[in-house]
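Our consortium's second objective concerns turning raw sequence data into structural hypotheses that experimental partners can test. To show how far this objective has progressed, the report includes one record in full. It was chosen at random from the queue rather than selected for favorable results. The single chain below, 242 residues long, was entered without modification.
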Amino acid sequence: MTESNRISVIIPCVDEEDNLKELIPYLVKHGGELVSEIILVDGGSIDNSISLANSFGARVLHSSVRNRANQLNLGAQSAKGNVFYFVHADTRPIRDFAQVILTNMAEGKQVGCFRYKFDIENRLLKFNSWFTRFNGVLSGGGDQSLFIKKTFFDSLGGFDESFCIMEDFELVRRIRQNSDFHVLPEEMTVSSRKYIENSWVKVQLANLTAFSLFLLKVKPSRIKSLYLNFLNKRIKSITVVE
């Protein structure tokens, strides 16, 4: 298989050593030769994220801007594969993610995401994850990961770096204007830490507020400010890469 037929996995990160020590070996093991590279785009970690990533063979890039859209674009700009797979550090893709992505690509699906389930048993969270099977206005969030052909991503101009929040939904909105978007039936696993450190009600209110304001085209900085007011501002995944 040539380099152009492989996947570049791109992970935005700030202080995620506990997740990376599981995620990167997992991606290496299950991605195999179908994965060209794993790129960690760091936004200023002060823990061992960078050294861990290097020890596991990932390529580390340093972003001067601590903003997920900027970090993801930086990773894409230097990626070698012709398929990008954007993955959050606190998620776990399905084991055969690489083969499933490339099989769907061969069937003509140039962009899409996966359903998900949470990493703990909880009825309310099961309710949340059940909705990820639908391909509607709420689908395509970053926790569902995103696979996309490099040529299509480039034609869209990548992520809009003016979005300090909701950058994933903003990109999917543009994707839908130009192509079909696909939600694959396989379920990946996502972290419940946001819910554990806050509460289900607070997170639901935060999400509803953010998405409603996004649809109303409120400035991203204002959305983020209101979003954080609902939640524990110390959460890394919120203050840095949400």
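The partners drew two points from this record. The radius of gyration is 17 Å. DSSP finds eleven helices and eight strands in the chain. Both points have been shared with the crystallography group to help prioritize constructs.
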